Amino acid sequence: MSVVVNILAAIGLIFIISTLIYYIYKYIKNRVTKRYIAMQNPPGSYMQSSGIKCPDYWVNVGIDTNGNYICKNSFNIATTTATGCNADTITFPPVTTGKTWDYNNPNGLTSLSDSEKYSFLTTKKYGNENTRCDWINKCGPNTQTQGIWSGVNEICNAPPPS
After folding, report:
1. What's phi and psi for 100, nearest 5 deg?
2. 8 A C-beta contact, residue 73 and residue 58
3. Closest C-alpha to 74, from 89, 62, 94
4. Which of 83, 55, 60, 71 lies closest to 145, judged by CA?
5. How far apart are CA 72 and CA 79, in angstroms?
6. Which of 19, 44, 45, 64 measures 20 to 30 Å from 155, CA to CA?
7. pLDDT tens digits for 28-87?
8. How many Cβ atoms are within 10 Å of 58's Cβ, its own excluded?
9. Where are the domains of the chain?
10. Residue 130 — left, alpha, or beta (φ > 0 → left; ψ -120 to 50 → alpha)?
């Protein structure tokens, strides 16, 4: 009888230790993720709420009939005059429905992966407009004006994620 009790006690001890190790691992992984998210600049929550809509210093003035964000150069930022670039108003498509730029979104939306973000910034929705990356590289601030599109510029000027 004592052999059976010892075997059950050993199994119970192994189970308790395994469970403890599992929860410690999850706790450490969660802290590392939170630390990584905190280091993101600009934060994903900012990107989702306003940063992805319009370039820095441009104002989101509404949504057009296709659901695109309408961005206005209200501060008269000097931009390049390349063909297909408008210095006053531009439009960009919204983030895919049900997706978010933010990590671990509390609203239950699915976070965009790095490759989905890159694809979103570089793929033309209608075929004739400038993507966000096109705008940065072709239509953005002229050479005498310093300015970037925080959170977008970094992705556009990096190699595609693998």
Report:
1. -140, 150
2. yes
3. 89
4. 55
5. 12
6. 64
7. 988 887 777 666 667 767 777 778 888 888 899 999 888 889 999 888 888 877 767 777
8. 24
9. 1-36, 44-156
10. beta
